[in-house]
Design brief:
The longest helix has 20 residues, at 106-125. The strands form two sheets. Strands 1, 2, 3, 4, 5, 6 and 7 form a seven-stranded mixed sheet that branches. The protein has seven helices and twelve strands. The chain is of the alpha/beta class.
């Protein structure tokens, strides 16, 4: 019987610091040619504005790892149905015999993995004294990105812009309390960006959310 882990189990077992460290190892394996990772397959579910994605990978590491993430992405789920935009599972197998070892709920794991990638990028590329952040979005990904940035930099102030999102005020209050820093709504996108040392776009917008002319020299951008 495979191990079953819920998003709550992932939350309890995996810290963002560990996720960032693991992401660094994974990227090193990938760049070193030790990973077989076919292009993800996407099945569009046009009548319901959704998509089904399958992402397999094998890492010839020590120990070696075999698995796949299978998810659905329905961007309007939160507003239409009160459900997460991303739902699915990660399947882990024993590489030697191919047996299914674990089924892991993917929502929190996906958020932490993407957040860890942003945190790792900022750790390597953002200025060491970066302390002010602009975040576009107030959803699951925006939260994970801020959690990761708080691990790699000593943050002082975060400005959030999420136009028309009723979650923005709650998001600011919760993140301010959880991270112990000032998190507030920006007056407008320009106000957020012009003060920022790091800018994060955690939004599904198909249009640009800020002007590149607002960026100060040396500002780091994590665009998702």
């Amino acid at each position: 019987m495979p191990l079953l882990l819920s998003s709550a189990d992932v939350e309890a077992c995996l810290t963002m610091k560990h996720a960032i460290e693991t992401a660094e190892v994974a990227f090193r394996l990938l760049s070193g040619g030790a990973v077989t990772m076919p292009q993800r397959t996407i099945t569009h579910v046009a009548p319901h504005d959704g998509a089904h994605l399958c992402m397999p990978a094998y890492a010839a590491s020590d120990p070696d790892v075999l698995g796949a993430k299978v998810i659905t992405v329905y961007p309007d789920n939160v507003t239409r149905h009160g459900l997460p935009a991303v739902q699915g599972v990660v399947l882990l197998y024993g590489p030697e015999k191919g047996e299914l070892l674990a089924i892991i709920e993917a929502e929190r794991l996906t958020a932490m993995r993407t957040g860890a990638a942003g945190g790792l990028a900022a750790r390597l590329l953002a200025r060491p004294d970066a302390s002010e952040v602009a975040v576009f979005g107030a959803g699951v990904q925006a939260r994970a990105q801020l959690e990761a940035l708080a691990v790699v930099r000593r943050l002082r102030k975060v400005r959030v812009w999420s136009r028309g999102d009723e979650r923005q005020e709650t998001f600011c209050q919760e993140l301010s309390r959880e991270l112990g820093i000032e998190v507030s709504a920006a007056r407008d996108p320009e106000d957020a960006v012009r003060h920022a040392d790091i800018v994060v776009t955690a939004t599904s917008s198909s249009e640009p959310v800020f002007s590149g002319g607002w960026l100060r020299p040396g500002t780091h951008v994590n665009a998702f």
